[in-house]
Automatic annotation (TrEMBL):
Domain ISXO2-like transposase: 130-278
Source organism of the structure: Tunturiibacter empetritectus
Spans traversing the lipid bilayer: none
One Pfam assignment: DDE_Tnp_IS1595
Protein name per its UniProtKB record: IS1595 family transposase
Length: 316
């Protein structure tokens, strides 16, 4: 199925509710056969007047909407507003604030804020595979502070002092893929456990000389080389310029677009920037990036209680 290639095409196309429905059917069920989200039956018909689907297999949830089983479930906001919101967050290089989205699609700021967090939930990747995995792969690893300290520093103890959150990042030079996550501290066990989780054995790892990376080569899983940033930023092929460029993008987004991000929500904003970075480049245009984001909506849920932290435990 053809999909819009530009924002103006998306707004015009999705202003028609039938187009929204047909588009989401094509995204959710590639072969065009609608399946009941409860029992998986293909015996499904569309009730035009009710704008609902009806499963002919008897069970308590025979009637269902297109939103059931997706990030849109239980949302009173129509798809003609949801889909442009997906487009904007997927393609705006520095994100879009809830105030701007509210003005753009005609919802309240609170609704826009919740919508954006739901979309960020969709952007979470399973990360079932490791980056690297061979001696040919070079992986840059670094951490940065968000809020409190505007620059990367290695003077004194690295840790959360009530004003700063720490984000750890990894970038492979082979595919340009980035992994990044909020961590509770920059101790050796924390950093190296994350490396073992995300980086394939045999990779060449490049870091600065922070003590948290000491003895990484002793595991015999990686070739570890360091650069002393007090002396130089590049030592041949050993540098962390790639991941530091990602930090610049992340901080520009946090300071310029979102301004005041609570530590509890920081990981979601990091996820957003990682997703956009990993799906950027000449090979993927805006329309394809939008379609990829939508392809991840099935099986994702985020309640208001979870996003406000009333039921979910805080990570640190």
């Amino acid at each position: 199925m053809e999909y819009p290639k530009t924002l103006i095409e998306a707004i015009q196309y999705f202003s028609n509710p039938d187009n929204c429905r047909q588009f989401m059917v094509a995204v959710r069920w590639a072969d065009g056969v609608v399946l009941c989200p409860t029992c998986g039956s293909e015996k499904v018909s569309y009730l035009e007047n009710a704008k609902l689907y009806f499963c002919k297999v008897k069970h308590p949830k025979q009637k269902f909407s297109l939103k059931v089983g997706t990030i849109f479930e239980d949302s009173p906001i129509a798809l003609d507003k949801w889909l442009p919101a997906f487009w904007l967050l997927s393609n705006c290089k520095n994100g879009i604030s809830s105030y701007e989205l509210a003005r753009a699609i005609g919802v309240t700021q609170k609704s826009a804020w919740f919508m954006l967090h739901r979309i960020r939930e969709v952007m979470k990747d399973a990360n079932t595979f490791q980056i690297g995995n061979s001696p040919k792969n070079q992986v840059e690893i670094d951490e940065t502070y968000i809020s409190g300290l505007p620059k990367n520093r290695h003077i004194g103890q690295r840790g959360v002092d009530g004003r700063k959150s720490i984000v750890m990042g990894m970038k492979t030079r082979t595919t340009r893929e980035v992994r990044a996550m909020v961590i509770p501290d920059a101790k050796r066990t924390t950093l190296q456990d994350k490396i073992l989780e995300h980086v394939g054995w045999g990779s060449h790892i490049y870091t600065d000389q922070w003590v948290g990376y000491d003895k990484l080569s002793a595991t015999n899983h990686f070739v570890h080389k360091t650069v002393n940033h007090m002396v130089e930023h590049v030592k041949g092929e050993v540098h962390t310029n790639g991941i530091e460029n990602f930090w610049a993008l992340l901080k520009r987004t946090l300071k310029g677009t979102y301004v005041a991000v609570e530590p509890f929500h920081l990981d979601a904003y990091v996820t957003e920037q990682v997703w956009r970075f990993n799906n950027s480049g000449k090979k993927m245009n805006d329309g394809a990036r939008f379609k990829k984001a939508l392809s991840q909506v099935v099986g994702k849920r985020l309640t208001l209680a979870e996003v406000t932290g009333k039921t979910a435990e805080r990570p640190f």
